[in-house]
Amino acid sequence: MAKSKQKEAQPAQPEQPAHKADPERAARIFILSGVGAMLLLVVGLLIGGWYWTQIRPLDKTVLQVGEIKFSLGHLERRMSDELSLIPASSLSNEFLLALPDSVLRAFEREAKVLEAAGDLDVTVSDLEIDEEIAQRGNIAAGAEPSAFAAELKRQVDDSGLKLDEFLQMIKAELLESKVLAHFTDAAADREPQVRARWIVIRVDDLEAAEELFARLEAGEEFAAMVEDLPDSAASIEEDWVPRGLFPDQAIEDFLFEAEEGQYSEVISTLIGHFIVELQERDEDRELDEVQKDRIGTRELFIWLGSLDAIIEIERNITDEDRIRALDDIL
Where are the domains of the chain? Predict the structure, then answer.
């Protein structure tokens, strides 16, 4: 019986796709994918550039006082808040150009108080801050927490500040008020004082000041001259004033060194030109309550100035930062 031949195994053939790929369609997909990727890259670059040029700079620390930092964004928000309190009729280019540094000085003062008030045993509690916020919003004691929360939100929104910035500002204001009271209470009962009068002439009219001084030198009485002053000048009479409360240190130095009835030469300051006459000086005169309040203010500023040697202060603002801040808020 003949053997049947076995069939040789055939190699498996790969399955053929139902449709052959369209070369033109593949090319279009490739091109569109490239364009999409390019668009995503451009958008990413634009967003990244906007972040680094517009948002990131606002995080820059422009002032640090001790451990307290103030960013460029914080500066802009406080500038906007300050600007909202000024009538449009009172705005000037000079005011606007000075605004960044004016707010920075306010920041520095607040931070000094926050950093050093504890050294005077002066503190402010969270409850006192809440009470101040409630008082500003006419929220009655014992009101519902929701009423207080709504009022706090309103005050924060009105200020344009962030919540922590707003609360820090309130705390600094309360602390400074307590520090002022501390120095007022500690004021002495008696101090050297002077009684004086002066003529002040506008800072842009030095010629008028020199002409008035020449009239005194020629023998005209001070009292008579104040009755006939140019439009750029005015006379002021000060009743008993202690040290530290004069428009300029040079004026104070003259009054506490001159002889009674003596007048000064022209004393030029940033706010005007002065011709000063000492009428009377008392080396040990009792202070009244108004004067004690003024002494408290004087001692507060002396204390703030003394902190420059104790607290590390870093000022990092540039002219570009100032311009940026003004551009952003105007």
Answer: 61-186+305-329, 191-286
